[in-house]
Amino acid sequence: MEFRTITAPFTDEVLKSLKVGEIVNVSGKIYAARDAVLPKMVKMIEDGTLAENGIDLQGGVIFHTAVSPAGVGPTSSNKLEIEGTMPEMTKAGIRMHLGKGELKKETIEMFKEYGAVYAVIAPVTALLNSKVISKKCVAHPELGMEACYELIVDKFPCIIAAAHGESMF
User: Are 123 and 101 in contact (CB under 8 A)?
Assistant: First the structure.
């Protein structure tokens, strides 16, 4: 079965066309970050230092994962250290948060305000790793696999879980 492919960074038009429950393939540049690095990235937003690391969040995707030799797979997006950074990351330009788990109603409403979405992805590391074309550490290498990585992906499968103030949960 073939699904629609959307390419990051996203335009407002693409984001507005997404429907809760829709399965899409995400291609393009995405950022991989989780618990340890997301609060540090919020600090970089506040300090205005993202660009120094070549990070441009406009229309971007943040995938809640670590990048290890075993591959990439989603972590729970509703952890305080992750969900708690979503408002700042969204205000800074992220338009798709990609992970797993149910989010708070307040978070879903905030996405609506900024035209952002949340998509879930099944924890299938081998499949996802086969969709990664390249990976590069762009911030906080001292965190190892939990640093922030820039990934170039091809047809990352995911399900739109929240959009336009609606949620599948």
Answer: no
Query: Whole-angstrom Cα distance, residue 54 to residue 107?
Result: 27
Q: Locate the domains of the chain by residue range.
A: 4-167
Question: Could you read off the pLDDT of 129-152 as tens digits, one per residue?
Answer: 888 999 999 999 999 989 999 999
* Radius of gyration of the chain measured on its C-alpha atoms: 14
Specify the pLDDT at position 71. 78
- pLDDT at res. 107: 96
Looking at the DSSP bridge assignments, the partners of residue 152 are 29, 134
Q: Which residues pair with 158 in a beta bridge?
A: 24
CATH classification of 4-167, choosing from 3.40.50.1820, 3.20.130.10, 3.40.50.2300, 1.10.150.130?
Answer: 3.20.130.10
CB 26 within 8 A of CB 4: no
